[in-house]
Amino acid sequence: MNFSLFLLAVFDGIAYAALVFMVALGLTLIFGVLRILNVAHGSLYAIGAYVTASVGAAIFAAGFAPFLAFPLMLIAAALIGVVLGGPIEYLLLRRIYHRPEVLQLLVTFAVFMILEDVQRQIWGTQPYFEATALQLLGNVQVLGVYYTVYQLIFLPLVALTVLIGLRLFLRRALAGKLIMAVTEDREAAQAIGINADRVFFLTFVVGAALAALGGALASPTTSVLPGIGADMIVLSFAVVATAGLGQIEGAAVAALLIGLGRSFAVYLMPELQVLVPYLIMLSVLLIRPEGLFGRPGARKI
Amino acid sequence: MLELRQLDAAIGNVTILRNVGFMLAEGDTVALIGRNGAGKTTLLRSIMGFTDVTGSIRFAGQEMTSLAPAHRPGLGIGYAPEDRRLFSAFTVEENLKLPVQVAGLGAAEQAQRLERVYHILPELREMAARPAGNVSGGQGKMVALGRALMLGTRLIMLDEPFQGLAPALARRYAEALRTLRDTDQNVALFITESNPALLRSLADRTLVIERGEVTENLLEPEGQGSDRADSTR
Ligand SMILES: Nc1ncnc2c1ncn2[C@@H]1O[C@H](COP(=O)(O)OP(=O)(O)OP(=O)(O)O)[C@@H](O)[C@H]1O
Ligand SMILES: [Mg+2]
Fold it and tell me: Which of B15, B33, B41, B195 most suits a substitution to test ligand 1, by most atoms within 8 Å of the C-beta?
């Protein structure tokens, strides 16, 4: 492997890690607070990508300014969080918090399957590709290697902003404090007047919006087609499990580890590309079943 | 002000409280004595809304049984659970302020309530900036009491507050309760304990709970504690 290939692998890994991280962050936040592993998270990612790509294509064809690609991503993510994430929590998950985990998993899996069909109904099976945002930011040359600014700088910057923003929100904003309090001790939180139902709702909407934001940000870098949601949920689950369930900063580290592992596999052993993330997860979990940063029994985010 | 009538409470499918009925008036200090497993914690948790109940719990002229748990503290109820149950990621002062922030009280009112707590528990002022996860067990009990005081303008319920406190700290805790009583003659105090000796000087009435049934204790509390001294863990 020569040096420029090495660099390319590193850049691919970072860009991919930034996307996976965003989705994994939503997944781990929801798990940390609601104690539910939300398989439908993958659909929210896919729908974020579909909405951004199709609406983007439509508005740019109608002559709107290309820079609108960026606000479009944010709006799509927020809308999907509220319009899809809201009802999923309010109408479904709320009824099963006290049920066995197997049942919870089955319910979110059912939602995932339903949303997969909905996607096929709305967007069909042909791929969508809308790269205005990527083209707008151009390329950059690093040590002789050309790479897109969007993937090398913009995506990691957004991921970092989301990570720091979420941490500050949890630590400083009242709504964030309520999330932390309910996570640590639901009954004690209610005993000081915190409405745990509302906190669960808010958390799920924020987590869902993060999945959709991941999809929106991914859409300029890849063809949007059936199956991307399934790929992403398995991969982000690998990240979350590697980091330790509910670990926010840990998810960033695990995403980098898995992103880099995957991109080096692409260059060195392409036949293992799909397998490497799970090999990383397995080897971590064999040594530390609670994940790299997890503490057994701790209820914290 | 607080009136329970024919209250049964269940956790899961198990009925734990049976036909509980008693009253607390404004300004009362009432001890609830019972050995381990008698149902003291379950009774307080039922008043806070954490069990399935039948019967009636009236508070400040309002039926509370149909009120969601999160809406009860705002009526003026402060509750310090058995274990400290502080929010460990927050500082001591953040723990104190959270209840009044959630209740949406005005800034002036929030500051005034905090001052009241610091007046009754001056030691909390020195701990204010420390993470609540790092204070000692005894200090944590003081913080939990302070937190209960923030919303407890009408009723304060303390679940075995003296449990696990070293004698000096237990005296200090009792002193703080006396300061509270001196500054506020109207608030009702409802305190559980397995060892009645600890509350003798504080309570003006004693209720006894045994296997989920509450009876008013009409005798002097003397002599009751001796055979149960072993029940303090
Ligand atoms: N979550 C629960 N599920 C089933 N039974 C419970 C539960 N919590 C308490 N109990 C039972 O209810 C009864 C009363 O328990 P409770 O905790 O109210 O007693 P207590 O008087 O507070 O005891 P202690 O002095 O040990 O704190 C006990 O028999 C206990 O086993
Ligand atoms: Mg108890």
Answer: B41
